[in-house]
Amino acid sequence: MSKLDIYCTTIKYFKVLENLPPYITPVGLGENIFPDHWITEKNGINISNLNKYYAEFTMFYWMWKNKTKTLNKDDLIGSCQHRYLWLDKKYSIKQRPSIKSLYSQLLKVDNKNLYKNDVTVFSPIIFSKKNLLEDFEEVHKNFALRESIGFLNLSDRKKFQNHLQQNKLFSHNMFITNSAYFIEYCEAIFPWLDKCLKYCEQNKLLKGYNLRLPAFLGERFTSFWFSQFKKRHFLSFARLGSFFLSNKVNSIVNPLKLPFTFNQYPTIHKY
What we know:
It contains 10 helices and 11 strands. The chain has helices spanning 51-54, 57-67, 112-116, 132-140, 144-148, 154-164, 179-202, 213-227, 242-245, 247-250, and strands at residues 4-10, 24-28, 39-40, 76-81, 84-86, 119-122, 125-126, 168-169, 175-178, 232-235, 237-239.
């Protein structure tokens, strides 16, 4: 069976990330200090200086330039975030109270659907009264996404434009795919992100919440890119709160493994 490597983004040290299943590797991003035994994006070829604009995309670049070299084309590579973890199933409603722990319900490395499909993504957020372009412009108060269409090659412009007229968003820049598809994705998105960053700088858009505007643009591109795959698999996710992320709590016990912690999840989006 192909191997599975998932890299978990974080800009702060959270001890709980050391207690995740072994196929998940936490990666420290940005300028904060991490323990010596941790991997950070500065260990290898990197664009860590752009993290304040690119967010988790600087880890994707690090994965592309440093980790894909060690993988076969069919090996699986993916991402998660310190607050968002893959679950092993797709859920449409929150779960009833159960003795199960959250840890026991996290993605299993032997989940056969991972290997039968081209990409695994979260079940999409579905907007009922707006499309993806309208949502972006409502939130970010600018036309950067509209302008970014022109930064793509001719063959992708129309497809991206059509995607933005739809209402399904595969959120959080989280996916699992094989190494070959991941490389194709990186080869497409990073030249485009560079043009997006230049546009944002020239138009003085990188302020306040929009400091990470290139990353928000990248989320829409990532949703578009993986929506094109016919063989898609959908999973739900757990959103970790302060109890799970507390280093004080995790120095005593791994709260992910406590009973009765799964009933809070998965997080369901309704718009």
